[in-house]
Amino acid sequence: MDSAWKPLRLTMFRWIWIATLVSNIGTWMQTVGAQWLLVHQPNAAALVALVQTATTLPVVLFALPAGVLADIVDRRRLLIGSQVFQTVVAGVMAVLSARGNLHPALLLGLTFLLGCGAIFSLPAQQAIIPDLVPRADLASASALGGMNQNLARAVGPALAGAAVARLGASAVFGLNAVSFVAFAIVLAAWHPPRAVREGRERLGAALLAGTRYIRYSPVVRRILLTAALFSIPGSAIWALLPVVASHRLGLGAGGYGVLLAALGVGAVGGAIALPRLRAGLSDARMLLLAFCTYAAVMAALASTRSTPIVALLLVPAGLAWIAVLATLNAEMQLFLPGWVRARGLSIYQIVLLGGMAVASAGWGLVAEQSSVAWALRIAGGLLGLSALALVRWPLADVGGLDRSPAVYWPEPHMVLEPAADEPVLVSLTYTVAPENAAAFLQAMDRVRRSRRRTGAVRWELYRDGEEPRRFVELYLVRSWEEHLRQHTGRMTGTDREFQKAALALAEGPPVVAHLFPPDVDPTH
């Protein structure tokens, strides 16, 4: 228990954690206020679902650039700027709502802008945690971050329901603006050590490096597939719950807030129970159980009009929701090395939240064309099929992988001095005994994925026709600067093990050559 709360003893982490909680509560209050303004409009189901779409669509458009920016600009300034931007947008929403001029199209547009500000804040906010707590406490700090989000999910909707019922939606939007101001003030009081900017990646190269890493990481692709299989059908509850509360249960804003709070309570309980669940179940089995639980809840929601039963059903739905998201996030954190973590998590957010954004609009249309009950039944059936897919494609166990940086390549000593943007073709010549050739080829397949993840845009392996014992590995890196990053921090302990396994099958170390275009000036 002591280790779980230990980071809160650190003053700056504690203040930022509290400010984040206030901001998250404000965001949930804003979402409830926006949805409730639309729930009595014509085509309410589609419009309410579009609030979720407008909130999360920026993830699809800007999550990856936001992850790159979190690595190449001053994170504190980026965070403060995003809070100021969101303050202005929320303030405009409050004023227009108070005047009765916040029409549905304008409301959705401003909600989209708030989502843009949030997504440019999220990667930077995750990246500053190592600056606030010692490395040994990072796991506890991450757990507290998850608890923060779930507390906001439990408290924010209930507060919003009461505020909308008593004061109107404009007050909720105004409180959201104040929450951003509070966060900006806390960030302004924080003075982190000045970051060293030398050697920062350029924006375009960093974008390519992040997407290339995901492309050549089967483990990450499997995690992303699981996130999509869950978020697309699972978003139906979040998208349609306002219509369930208003049209099926006859509840007001306060009742809707209570239902959302039930989801949040389940999520908080899930966060507390997760360590015990993991102790008794593998991640694959826990995901399967969570998928089935969530699917059963959707089917049950479609068949009842009792408010107490709906509230009770939403508690295990919240538990299943956090079990899936926490497990997938932990898998991503364990697998991704530090140099690409923000970009990898940004792509994960694109798949998870982007899937929710697109699917939310779809579930609203399904509900309009049929009914809310049938939309929930269809979503539950799809999630049941997704559970079967988990049996076919279970997640890999990544807990034993060494993702720490490993600088084990010798420093290259060049007579030529290529420019930083000069492409380089790296050649490694191995001598392999005939009886080891088959095993060597198998080992080199792992080496291939390692090279491609860390910078190679092309990789090939050839066998010498005159000397069959000789194998030549060739891989092209787009720039000399990026190849040097392979030498100085992109490789991990697991990459080193892959290369050691291949070298163990060869006779001695390989002969390495760095080949440049013929017009490189030797005196450059």
**Residues in β-strands, percent:** 5-15%
The 3D shape can be described as globular
Q: Give the helix tally.
A: 18
DSSP summary, beta strand count: 4
Radius of gyration: 26 Å
Following the backbone from N to C, one meets helices and strands in this order, namely HHHHHHHHHHHHHHHEHEEHHE
Unreliable stretches, pLDDT < 50, 5 or more residues?
none
CATH class of the largest domain, named Mainly Alpha
Oligomerization status of the protein chains:
single chain
In whole angstroms, the N-to-C terminal distance is 60 Å
CATH architecture title of the largest domain: Up-down Bundle
Mean pLDDT: 85
The portion of residues assigned to helices is: over 70%
The secondary structure category is: mainly alpha
**How many domains?**
2
Describe the structure.
The protein is 71% helix and 6% strand. With 524 residues, it is mainly alpha-helical. It has 2 domains: 2-191 and 200-392, MFS general substrate transporter like domains (Growth Hormone, Chain: A); 424-515, Alpha-Beta Plaits (2-Layer Sandwich). A 4-stranded antiparallel sheet has the order 2-3-1-4. The longest helix has 31 residues, at 218-248. The model has no long low-confidence stretch (mean pLDDT 85).
